[in-house]
Each structure stands twice: as structure tokens, then as C-alpha cells.
Design brief:
By secondary structure, the protein is mostly helical. It has one domain (3-86). The chain has five helices and no strands. It has helices at residues 3-11, 21-37, 41-53, 60-63, 67-86. Helix 3 packs parallel to helix 5.
Length: 87
């Protein structure tokens, strides 16, 4: 999945800093709906990553039934947290 393509599809731009709070909220809702209905694992994970970046992702334990997908989401979240702490 191409992150920029996802952002352009759901938010109309790949630069979220240009959007109003209402535009971000509208895009977030669209991503949440897509995440809830998506069946393909890779695309679903990519949508979860977008939600995580927006602070709206469900916990990996509830978002992913598959153990490997759940483990990948947990590891991703840990890596992002480490990166943010390091600046």
C-alpha cells in the first residue's frame, strides 16, 4: 500500500497539515469505515496504520484476529513510540 495514495484517497491530499480539523475528522471517519469493512490483510493493516497515525486506531488486540497481524501491529506501535521518544 502506498501511504500517499491512501491519504490522497481519503483526505484529498497527502499533506494533512493543510487540512482543517473538520476535513481530518471526515477523512478519519472514512478510513474507520474502510478498516471495518476491508477483508484483505495488507490493505486492512495499512488502514490501521493511518488510524494509528491519527490517534484513532483500535488496540491491536481487538483490531486483528490473526495472531501474526496482531503481533505486527503491536511491534509497529512500539517502533513508532520509540521513534517519537528519540525525536
Amino acid at each position: 500500500m502506498d501511504l500517499d495514495a491512501l491519504l490522497r484517497h481519503y483526505f484529498g491530499t497527502d499533506d494533512l497539515d493543510r487540512l482543517t480539523d473538520d476535513q481530518i475528522e471526515n477523512g478519519r471517519q472514512q478510513v474507520e469505515l474502510a478498516f471495518a469493512t476491508e477483508r484483505e490483510a495488507g490493505r486492512r493493516f495499512a488502514l490501521w496504520v493511518v488510524l494509528h497515525a491519527l490517534g484513532a486506531a483500535p488496540a491491536p488486540e481487538t483490531a486483528f484476529k490473526d495472531q501474526d497481524e496482531r503481533a505486527a501491529a503491536i511491534e509497529y506501535a512500539r517502533a513508532i513510540d520509540r521513534a517519537e521518544r528519540l525525536g
